User: What shape does this take?
Amino acid sequence: MKRLICLLPTLFLMFSAHAQTRVVLDSWFNDEHMKDASGKLVSYHYKWEETDNNGFSIFGEAFKRNGAQISTLYDEPTEKNLKQADVYIIVDPDTKKESPDPKYVMPKDVKVISDWVKDGGVLLMMANDSTNVELPHFNTLAAKFGIHFNNDLLNHVIDDKHFLQGAFMIIDNPILKTAKKIFMKDICSLKLGDPAYAVLLDGETNIMAVAPYGKGVVMAVGDPWLYNEYTNGRLPKDYQNDKAADDVAKWLIGESESRKVRKSESKN
Assistant: This one.
């Protein structure tokens, strides 16, 4: 009996580590709408359920394939709502040209989200080039983690004959472990300070970064580059954004699982 009692904390930790990771996609800050075939207004642009070029359905399948469950948060990210998330993804917050009533990142959102990360949450921030994303308010959140999305435009690709203008060769990357050549076009760069550090560079320009924060971690990149248009085979065969989607999903899930284990251990 004593032996069984001693094993219970270990069994609990094992169960916690392998519980299904909950990946929640924001649809509060990114809340664009369009009319469907019936004339009904529907949410679109970087959504799990979208199977056209604009969607995240392939990225979502990468999470599910690696054991996670995915959902969408259409309400603001309150403390209560974020308790339902292990990984929270904010993509391309709306500008006034994209939404008649854009939901900007406000000070209360910065506090709630940063507190959630500090308590062990894993946050993915995906911006865009400065003409297609609301950066000033988004940067107030990024600043909590030593990250700033720059007001610039890199890797401008003219047309499908110039994919090479958006190419990155990947060597010994801590996140992109299987993708060897990826495509990102029309992105913004990052300015970094403590505690953030670059995990993908173009020369001396920061493209992708990670920031440990309390018990959690943040990953930031200046583009929603894993949407269906560039993960579904439209790219030339030597580009591996589909593998990159799987790599990113695995990394986010792994970071969440390891942090849940450490958090549980600290309570025992």
